[in-house]
């Protein structure tokens, strides 16, 4: 019997680091864990990071799990069937950060069609406390709810577990208040605070997956027009850039310069950053991975390169609330800024920014059909 652990949560919440940290915690308990990444596009930065940490990794691209349901099932089967002498017993999967309604479109269909071979754990929504507080402040000021805020709220409403990541980024008294407010506002969910980056209280999250799945018995009322509009606010870019340099290039420094420039542009343009991530990989496989989760913020180094190099490949995944052409231009300018700061030269593939199409789930089961 396979245990399947579904993760959801808004862009930039730290689902990938959560997936890695919990997978490692489960492995320490003797579990044999595989993971699945997911995105609307291809060439996923997160997959490269996960493969540097874990052995069994798959990805579902070109749409969320709800619209690529059979691809998700195929990925689970491939991980289990390809495990060799030590079979996988647990699969953790992170859905696209702009996706919601997973109880009806993923959790219940998996239970209904594959329940004889799979135990589906409580649906876990990962949140960044600073992102939550920003949305909450707007609501408390009486501002009209934006489509992005609506999407964020729906992700919380359908959660069995609300996983408050990066709890160490806010003061202890604010953390206590935030946890209490979430527990009161979303009483059907267990609320767990932790830090995937430091590993603090990750075991508490793993324990929560053994608890009951309360919200699978509740129908989430989703306005799919608003859901689609929220996704369409974001331009999605997956860009491939090749770097060369006469002198040895600090891969991490180049990535930091590039994301800082992109974040500065977003701040000036008033563009909400869902997330922007990149890897800078040398030919020998060494790579740096960095993230940006807010306009004007300091980039986060998720993995530093160990060596310098004179050639490298950059993969950029950016999700920003703007028009695709604006994001294309901003990324080009950010690359140029990083080149000027580090002495690198670059050649890029044609931009592939796009806006997601209307979400069309393969299945949507009501709670009474669970």
UniProtKB/TrEMBL annotation:
Gene Ontology CC, one term: cytoplasm
Superkingdom assignment: Bacteria
Occurrences of domain CobW/HypB/UreG nucleotide-binding (ranges): 7-187
SUPFAM superfamilies: P-loop containing nucleoside triphosphate hydrolases
Classification via Gene3D superfamilies: P-loop containing nucleotide triphosphate hydrolases
Signal peptide residue numbers: none
Annotated PANTHER family: COBW DOMAIN-CONTAINING PROTEIN, COBW-RELATED
Protein name, UniProt field: CobW/HypB/UreG nucleotide-binding domain-containing protein
Organism: Amycolatopsis camponoti
